Queue: 4 jobs
Job 1
Amino acid sequence: MAKHDCYHCGLPIANHDENKFRTVILGQQRDMCCPGCLAVAEAIVSNGLEDYYQFRTEPAQKSDDGILETLDKLKVYDDPSLQEEFVFDEGQDKQIQLTLEGITCAACGWLIEKQLSKVEGIKQVAVNVQERRALVTWSPLQIKLSQILSTLKRIGYVGSPFHPDEHEASYKREQKTFLKKLGLAGIMTMQVMMLMTGLYFDWFGAIELETRQYFYWVALTLTTPVVLYSGSTFYVGAAKALSAKTVNMDVPVTLAIFGTYIAGIRSTVLEQGEVYFESICMFIFLLLLSRFLEHRSRHRAAQISANMMQYVPVSATKLMSDGSVTECLAKQLQINDVVLVKPGETIPIDGVVSEGHASVDESMLTGEFNPVRKENNSVVYGGTVCQDGSLTIIVTQTLKNALVNQIVRLQASAMASKPKAAQIADNFSRYFVTAVLMISALTYGFWWYQGSDDAFWITISVLVATCPCALGLATPSALTCAMAKLNRQGILLKRADALEQITGIDTIALDKTGTLTKGKFTISSAWYADGVDSDSALSIARALESRSEHPIAKAFTGDKASNDDYKPADYTVHKVVNFTVAPGGGISGEINDTLFSMGSAAFCVHESQQAFIEEYPSANVFLTVKGRIMAAFEVRDTLREDTQETLDILVKSHTLTVLSGDTQQNVDSLTASLPIETAKGGLTPEQKYEAVQAMQHSGAKVMMMGDGINDAPVLASADVAIAVGNATDVAKTAADVILLGDQLLSVPVLISTSHQVKQKIRQNIGWSVGYNVLILPFAVSGLLSPWMAVVGMSLSSIIVVTNSTRLLSK
């Protein structure tokens, strides 16, 4: 930076002698080019973050001259209607993903995290420098979004809400750059190798020294753009690592490239010594190729979920209250709006069918290509395809909270979490790089002391051959490919380290209703107390159950009752107020100022009535008024078609236990033919939780599978939790894995894949470490020339990536 350049952005200062924009940074008076840079610099200094100017590797972007005025414009982001699209609720806090402009190096990420963490009200900040994104969580009671964006603006960065389309465009730009660098390196490598190989093997005959030097100059000319442009990816990575006071695999790569390149220039100019221009080009080309393969495999894994938004149509046909239809944007639809979907159209939003019948292709969500029949009260999801028939749909979720958007967010969260294997590999890589640098220095010292003319080239061979690129790819390449495979089959991981934990599971606990069974209940028997009118009791039961989301409710609200005299009467005749739900127990509500309860005997039957329960031994749902029994119902469910097959597979390597809130009699009846070791019925949510805790205290590693609100506590306590089928939002929140489809056979696939991933990671790490250990003696002893080291290192990385991608085809 020249003496008269701006200390903040590096641009020249006009009329330096008359410049009034100065401030003290790092103990010295510094000149700024404008009021904007001065305001940003003073904000950095006042917050005690002067170290930014020591760590940065590039100047900051020039600040807006009218920065103080532009800060006021950010207040528009505080508008709740504007935030509705991109701000998500995290309990009482808010969360947003920001696209950051102005990031130039790792020091920028450090500065942003430090600056925002000092601001009261901001709970969490995570900056991804490579993707130029930040995840910010804040308390809306303490700070506004505009203040967060203003804080960023004051230190020279522009934050704006992240959009998946922009992220996809960013990937394509990065891929285009990769291909340009890779193409240039490939073309130049072929040309240089033709020249240099001909010289090495004397294919040109006894050529004169001047001709040989001419070939060297041609090779140098062809190699220079490869080094300066194609290899820039590694230099930037090395610079970022060193600025953060650490080392990564780019450091030895950079040293090897520039060492060989500078030595080649010296030999060419002085007309003495060896040149290895073909090794440089081949090294950069093969290393770029391995990284490009990794880059593409990561994207293939991410796009299966992240690109789900492309299935959602931009527009929707909205049905107005007067019966007319109008076209609108899908993102403008609100809860309770009515949408019309015609045959062949894609459903634009999550909702419930209010009219019509159709087969819907849900393969983009579940991976199952058999169409699902939808009718009244069926749930449908945005992005699925209505194959035949028309559907009238009542919107239940805005596009922001639709299932496809939830999947994208959960997938991003899963990719951000690192399993222990990845963390160990990352730490080991840093130590290994340090060891490589030390071994290289000692190697050079030894051969120099021995007086060898090849000391430098032997050292280069050590740096290249032992570069731990394959080790760095071992875990992430396997994980991303595994997650891609699972997503294709409708299995969504909320955290990547769940795969690692699944391999240690020895006990599987299962809920009964909605997990082992279809969750489609029918009333098989009904009993009524003396003096109670059956139609009146049924009408009250239906009114209460119409307010419930439990699958049992459908047995009472006229949905496929098994008994012929069960008429789907108008249950809205009773107005229910003060409705409450007791998870795992039942429901209560007031009708005409009288409190009615419905659910298990333990929940709603008074102790004085316990004797009457014996009159209804198979009853599992009771209707009571003030604790006295009005009616008792036996509600039955049927097993899923694949329950038997799934459990037969799982029991071979796991202990199976059923934990249910249904009566013990019903549980025993349902599980009699299943390979279940223990089946417990009549359990409250607390008792389920205690049962899992007892298993864990005895040394078991427990996987819990459930779907209801009452399963949330036990799902959260298990070592691994799976939300099955159409689980409630509460169950999905507590789970580590979500099955988007309705097939239990997805669970053996999940377990099998987790073991395959563990095996692949072990193979990858074993190969990469074994290769480095094996090749090191040859490199140190001088038996390995630089071009041999290049080929070996690059093939090692390519083998690791290829081995991981085999998971996609299994």
Job 2
Amino acid sequence: MPPTGPRRLSLQEIVDGHRRAAFVGREDELALFRANFEVPPEDARHRFVFHVRGNAGVGKTSLVREWERAARESGALTAWVDDAAESIPEVLASVAAQFAGQGHPLKALDRLLATYRRQLHEATAVPADGEPSPGALAASQAGLMVAGTIPVLGALAGGLDPATVARGAGGLRAVFGGRARQEEARLSAEPVQVLTPVFVAELERVADTVPWVVLFLDTYERTAPVLDGWLTDLLTPHRHGNLPANLVLTLAGQRRLDPVRWSGYGRLLADVPLAPFTERESRQLLTGRGVLDETAVREVLRLSGGLPVLVSTLATNPGAFDDANATAVERFLAAESDPGRRAAALACALPRRLDEDLVAVAAPDAGPGLHDWLNELPFVAGRYTGRARYHDVVRAPMLRLERTASPRRWAEAHERLAGAFAARRDRAAEGVAPDRLWTEEPWREAALDALYHRLCAHPRSALPDALRAGIDVCGQDPVAARHWARTLAEAGEDADSAVLRDWGRDLLTALTDHGPRVAAALGLLLTRAELTDTDRAAALVTRAWDHYRAGEAGTALSDHGRAVAMDPRNARAFQGRAVVLRALGRYGEALADLDRAEELAPDRAWAVRERGETYRRMGRLEEALVVLDRAHALDPADAVPLGSRGLVRHRLGRHEEALDDFDRAIALRPEYRWALVRRARVRSTLGDPVGALADLDRAEELVPGRAGTAGERGEVYRATGRHEEAVAEYDRALALDPDYAWALGSRALAYEQLGRTSDALADLDRALEIDPRYAWAREQRNRLGGGAG
């Protein structure tokens, strides 16, 4: 075997080494951070939170990146998050992904985040396979869901089907669902409150396996409105669980921390204000760049004010500046004598991100090699990543110069860039359903960049289209709505438009204060926007769905009604109102609205699908079959009509055809959990327990901890005579949902087969207590000798 030489460094390691060698100054701050790892957490000198603050360009990110390397050298598990994460769930997802990349996955958190993402995905679609329960909607409409109790009196009678009211409190518990469904609903309504304790528990677990866990939150001046309260809650004892003592949190932002929120954490916190470079540090950087001429050094020191990004930029050409009135922009570009390249560099400040194609669009008259030249400029970050961008300290004056020097050239350049991003957006739309576009990141990024450039070119005339886009994004992807609002704010800043700045600020506030809910932001659009009645109706329909998903049936009906009155030709308004009415058991009114929706949109599969689903829920199975056939013919790519038709065929005893429908539905949507669970029932009926259990395994993988999945698994075991295993699965289902009457009835049959008749009778008694109208359970109780009851 040949001798083994030293390990060859990778290209990335070499580049990183060069960058670290170029890092100068900040010795005291580096020493402070490194020394903290030598102080045990129990020592009063140890700091659990570091806050780096200072003006833009002062070098916060560079310093904190050095801190991250120091942490890793101390064996720390680290994660870095900036303002690309617009919400706490996004922050948690980013941390989990980075920890997993270092060999420490947060599996429990990942599973919960997957459920939350599925909820967000399903929340933006018509919930044909999982509507809020009629009882929950009606009780919410009447204002009765208070402190977890549901009185069965008075106002309920106006919102519930009389048969439901007649079932009494036990029946309502069955309608509302048990603990597991309530917890999943809580995850949707209060994601931060549900995710955070799991995150804390996972941190505690992984912290036992590493010396330190260090989280870095950059650009905190932007994320503080979302994260400030959450972080201080995390640090509050017993609020979300016990944080590990070897956790260090690092924040980097421009402003001081909120003195009210952080007043009680002074002993935990190291405040690290960053001033501009001292003259010694600036000279050190210039020496490293080969700038030794004293006249040039003094000029750089005078012009840069010690801001590291400017020292680095001006160091590229520190020659004499004869014109005392030269602009800051000219100084940034002093290294380039070619006026064409200087103009091209200014033009390339316009896009928020750069790649070779965008450079060609921004500066169409520039010569070859411009992209490579730009990536060598010291104020360009993220080189050769396709997401390169100018540093804000440099970009801002360049934008001001371009905007004021030639408004016509400014508008034309932004129009070209808007067209380029629109072309990317259109390419990204291929193969994506129109009502899912905002959930697809490539499409969303291109669409928002196209929007940004149109707003910069024509702030007032482009605003209505931007607000209409907001209605769409709120309906499709509530989390992405913050990216849309921030785009308005950034366009307002860069185009110097007070109107856009105000819109962006107010929309961001509305979306931040209300978590995943978009009703407040849509309220702003409805009260302040100069939109057409058609646009307002669309906003009302979107807001109605937001209310409906939150169980606010009365408000949802009101918004749908207003939309119908405002735009009587809005088929979606009739469809949405029909879905709410159907969930309340008001089938006649729902069908009337669906008549009108189909009249307005006769060839739209979603209108036909809702009629088929309504017939199915009414028990009109033959009619449902005919209508679902038509819905499938109109849109063969929609999995929902196939799933609904499969359930209808199963109930009609046409099991082979049902299996075929479920197969096709799942092929179209592999994560269609509802169809997987129901296909398992069909497979079990057809004598394929192995296939049924495989479907239930997949359903459990997609959405862990659902009582229905465990109950169906119990059914498969019971059907194959594995009664002990069946009981174990029913036990698990009932632990997840103690009011799961169906599982109690099925467990009773398994108990009977095991000779445990008294246990079977107890289960049937409990099932009837939960649902006095459960006729099958009463028959079984009588059969087993439990009396007429």
Job 3
Amino acid sequence: MKAYKYLFLLFVSLGIVSCSDLEEDPVGLLASPDDFFQTTDNIQTAVNGSLTHAINEKFWGRKLSVALMLRSDMVDLASNETRRVENNELTTLANNGMISEFWLKTYQGIAAANQAIKGAESVNVPAEAKNPVTAQAYFARAFYYFHLVRQFGDIPYISEALTPDNTAQMGTIGKTSAEQVYENIIADLQFAKTWLPNTQASRAIPSKAAASSYLALVYLTMAGTNDTANFQKAFDEAQDVILNKGVYNLDLDPDFQNLFNADVIDSSIEPIFALDYNNFEAPDNAYDQIAPMTGIRGDDRNSGGGWSVAVPSLEVYTTWNAQDYRRAVSLDDGASINGNLELYTNFTVSGHQFAKNRPYIAKYTRFPGAFARGNARATSHNYSMMRYAEVLLIAAEAAVEINEPEFARTYLNEVRSRARMGGTTLSSGVEVTVTGSAEPADHTGTVTANDVLEERRLELAFEGKRWYDIVRRQLGATAFGASGLEGVKPDFSPNDYLMPLPADELARNPNLLPNNPGY
């Protein structure tokens, strides 16, 4: 699957270059949607163009993923670059460059999805032939808007394809309420679930299971802390995936490390939807830099080591049960620096000002596969946006809230059981086998929402999930208080649950004013 494939889709100033597991053919310059969209293959090309925008340094390759890490209580900042400081300290300004870049890249993905949906209308084949392809575009549009609405609340909602006639009009659109955006996301995902096949050739291509799993997460997010009706919907959707895991070819991978090993992840049946990077640095920053951003300064691995930017606080490591195999996989507590084996207590031996004596994130630096640039940039990683373990935890959390304690306990313990199985990983740069342990033990009492949220924190650590959990459960006062993993963040207020709309966007379109409260 790791072949180099390219897409050149140029239409209405939307330039797209692909380097993913998606199948594309060069199509050159498109005169108009009506001229281009003649077959289902044309729809597929446009869909692949939409998803390609997510495989970019300005989206998951660095800007969005690292912002989500820093805003959480699991990752601290070791460097001093202003826009990262603002995200880490929750003092983000509207002119923050990280926000403006992933805002634009997200809307480019949406625009390409809209183009595919509109273009499909011109393809004269039965619905049974084209809807399974068009459904991928509906999924992509929902995927992008789900990120935007959780970050910004009320946002411009654009569902029309850009044309020379309406491009100027799009620049004057106002904000759509978050409630309406969620309704639109649900409608798109329901269409996708209806028409997508049960399985696809790659987990980078949306399937029925991906649509259903995202519906479950959308309902869980909308439920907040006390919306029983949406908790019930979340449970029903998640259980639908669980009960049909055989049909969807899903299950927990027996070795947790496999999920973060670029050399074996294609064979795992745990990912449900992934963003697949393929060891290629395409134009327009279409590659990833998460490994160096989270890597150890002076580390002898990966042709130059890491940059010591996003580094967990020491408490993330010391409060994590040492017998939990996920800690060994998720964190590096040793490394080879200048040819010498060093424990985390001496990582500053590298001499760099940003080096920290604490364990670093290991999920993206140990097994990046082939990479195109030093420091493990442009890796071969598949980043799981949704995987089966999360579906189990969605079902468990929703089950708590709808008073289904047996389901909550069963699904929570299934995830814990895998964590006890152990496996093969790297410790201080040396391959070791971690044998099974008694921890984390099965939960035998009443499962609470906090139990499930804590399990999500560990299971999904550093995967861009924790900030969204803090927001939807309104956990900021605790997470960023004196007992928090990073200590007190004195600038936190409930206004920080939403990011500011980008200042340059507001300047271009005053119809988006006022900005979110507090900005």
Job 4
Amino acid sequence: MPEQQQWTITATEQPPEWFIQAVKHYTPASSGLYAAQLLWQRGIKDRQQLTAFINHKAYQPASPFEFGQEMHLAIARLQQAYNTKEKIAIWGDFDADGITATSVLWDGLGQFFAQNTQLVYYIPNRLKESHGLNNQGIDNLAKQGCKLIVTCDTGSTNVEEIIYAKQLGIDVIVTDHHTLPAERPPVAAIINPRYFPKEHQLFNLSGVAVAYKLVEALYQTLPNVAKYPLEDLLDLVAVGLIADLVQLSGDCRYLAQMGIQRLQEDFKQPAAARRRPGVGRLLELCQKSGDRPTDISFGLGPRINAVSRIQGDASFCVELLTSRDVKRCNELAEVTELANARRKSLQKDVQAQVAQKLTQLDLSTTSVIVLEDAQWPAGVLGLVAGQVAQETGRPTILLSTEGLGTGDWGLGTGEDSSQSPLPLIPRGGPTFPNPQSLARGSARSVNSVDLYQLVKEQAHLLHRFGGHPFAAGLSLLVENIPLFTAAINQQLRQSLGSTTLTPTVQADLTVTVADLGKELFLELKLLEPCGMGNPVPKLLIQNCWFENSWHRNQQDWQGKKVQYIKAEFDIRDDSSRSAFPGLWWGHYKDELPVGRCDCIAELDYNTFKKRYEIRLIAVRSSANSALNTQLSLTPYILDLRNQEHSARAKRPATANSTQHSALIIEDCPTNWDDLRMWLRRCLAISRSTSGLDNQQQLAIAWSKPNHQPPNQIWLTLVGIAKYLSRTNQLVTRGQLLEKIGISDQTLLVGIKALKYLGFTVQRQDRSLQITWNPNDSAENLADEAVARFLAAVREEQFQQQYFAEVPLSTIVAIASYDSK
């Protein structure tokens, strides 16, 4: 790609000797030092944590009834359906997490309800429908006589659709892990781990894991009904968890560990004896054995996702994952493999076209890459946008006018949907009866840029938009694309100031070629399964060179050419006389530098070639090998959010503040600029002290907000205004803000709305005087002004909710970027 990457190596302290020895207990064939460094660096710092992290048998998983009253309500409703023989529909989603979640409920609830007669499932079509419930699908289920819908991986914010189902006599149980609604919807139960504090062991569950917890609770409630053990579902849980890239901590890690074990055990069986012949056949087609998390993230996950990307309808994937008919599963696996081959080919074509368009851009003056094409298939735009964003270090938005509609938002694809996606936001203004006038596409970001905030500022130019800080889907009028491109670039340039965007690759450890091989592989394998919050270790190898390099087009399972390049090589350095094999996906051998170089790679085991090898991530000549140590001037951030009894005594920050005197933020921010102000203040103090030993700490100590409904806030504001008018009392803006619990900016919107209701607000010194003279003539304008205030309150509440839960790693990424 056209931009020089910036390399960083994660700063870490040496773990104590007792910890190294404790890790060595699990790696008797090696020193354990590398694994100990990584574990210590990633927050595993006592024996109990270490034991539970490595050995799933030592971990105590949470009871499904940790979900409290909502789980009891869900089980009671399912028991009612069981006793009265009601018809139930599972409503899933079309990505890998949604497909596996549907499969878990199909197999799990299928132990209690007759499949196809008493139990059915519905998965929206990616190319025709969006994520979540929709009225047309609900109508279809009502005609089939369904009295209960159980969602999985979706549904939390579908309040209107839930109300509609209720009007048709259908109850809804929501199981989901995405954005929470502002108020509890009128459901029979809502089971969503986002209601837990983020430290809870269930907080990071993906959709499939939440579905599993519901089935687990039903198994415990009706212990003598099911014929198959609950553990038979764990392989599906592992596939969904890892494909969805959720943070693998707490119960997520435990379930993934258990599930990978079940997956491997089943794959070792003859095809006719496998519990899941479809999964086994998919593993064979992608030449994996199911014993590694990468077999899912690079093998099973992309294939399941490919079906909806190419065909739209992915319903048959549930049959593929759950049927025991070997012949039928082989047929479906081959259809899936063909879809994945088609996805690869389309993705490769789009990548080539995007690369060509990039040559026409001046990246030195481009902050956000926005590209469009009438021929691009929408199903692969998110994948390509993610790759471009990673390689250029810039947020990337790819738009297509092919097959226009408003259904596919490029989200929920497994690579990023775990980051708590927001509900799609329909924008006000005119409707668009002619869908051919709309472009739709996908956006992907980099750690230093909050994509949601960036795109939301241009909402007036969009038709619809939904997403989260790292990924989004959007649609807009084709004629608005140039204006949108210019506006979003100007906005990010202003936000960045003099800072330039640079693609960054991070290494965790420095090793030599002599270190590579079985011993290091088994040592690093202690960290598996890897995922969000616990990434695959990246190894820096310095002053090395390549030999015996060659490349070829990768073929599909039928021997047909797929335009996908793979370079293979041997790597050497001065530490050993022996070379070590490796490969570089998507690159030609000619792209390998000649002579001495540095590289960043992952160590892997090739099951079918039965060899250890490295997978190259980045490479450059040694002449460009200056490295930055990450966080060298980044504030040391303490995460004290949502801790009731944490020490939060405020101390004034001075120029000689040290790491023992933290700056403390107790007010929850509503945007990144609020937080950046504190980060820059912290950096200024650090830079004014002598050395990194006096690095200024920043403690984020706000609590999860307890919001009132926006309508109630408006009524409170009106009530206060009437009281002040009647008593002729003065009030300060600070008093109003404290009483109502909103920001100063939102209060200004509320004051404008008050004026349309006939209130007059005048400033007297530092106070406000409010008087009321009702005026009916401005009723329509008043309604619009109140609607704007309510929208501002909802947006502010969402932002506070986001900052109450945003991962510390994201805050650190923003801090790291701003410190450059």
